[in-house]
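Predict structure. Chain length: 328.
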Amino acid sequence: MRVKSRRVWTPAETERDYIRNAITAAAPRTRSILWSFARWLEHDRGLVLGTIVVRIQSVRRFVEAACTSRRTSGALALRALTARYVEDFFIKYVRVSGPVARRSMQSAMRLLLKFAASRRWVDDGLAAAVPSLRRYRLAGLPRALPETELHRLLEAMGTKVTSARDQAIVWLLACYGVRRGQVSALRLEDVDWSARTILFRAHKRGKSIQHQLLPAVAKALVRYLRSERSPSGDREFVFVRKRPPHFRMSPAAVTLTVQRCMRQAELTPRSPQALRHSFASRLLRVGQSLKTIADLLGHRSFGAVAIYAKVDRPRLLEAAVEWPEVRS
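Prediction complete.
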């Protein structure tokens, strides 16, 4: 009797599973195109697997609509595309979709049409038929968690309901303003107990940043490592799955953890990004410069934190000039 070998789980393999599931869920007539498109995104465009997942999920709807309207499948459906059809589909889509979904569909459609052009199925300029979305830089405001809600969340972390792992994750996000991917990628060797420092590695083209290990964070990490973390877990990463196999937690799992903790604190579930915004806004209120905030957040570009200047009303008032009196 042959024993079936068990495939080793890795973060990359999980993302490939997401791609595979997204394509399998599509209409049969579209799958060959989506598989070819996914391979092109990875090998020709150099996109990371997480981005490919999002692009496939977005463009799948467009490919299915093209195949249905042309009553054909595969490359034949793409060959029959016209600029008018591309424009009409996108306009109809944005009317019923939110801003994030619109931008994702726009990028996915343009990439698909560039892929089709590389195969000589459509003209090189067809990607330009996807309408542009008007976006104003720094038009919004950072959606930070209010201080009262942040305090309620941290107080809830001290209850017996919250696991040691969840408590440690929330404390890391709240105290250091790191990204969920940096928490997921935190390694055991990144915590220097003798020097009382913690290192967060570069993420999203940013830079690595080293912080002092705060007492509250250290206490939460020690409690988790001693009482909850499975001894058979991944020997490299700090946070691992609770159920076997005990491999590294994914960034998506970090998000679900934060949202679960917010529900326990009777708050509206938010993403870990809200804690990152809270960290930056808190630094701004105590007088830290935008350059310092950019460094602490791991940004290489000063412009990446320029949006936080919009919430610093006292400094904005100082920059305002008196309007000359209008004389008749």
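Summary: Strands lie at 191-192, 197-200, 209-212.
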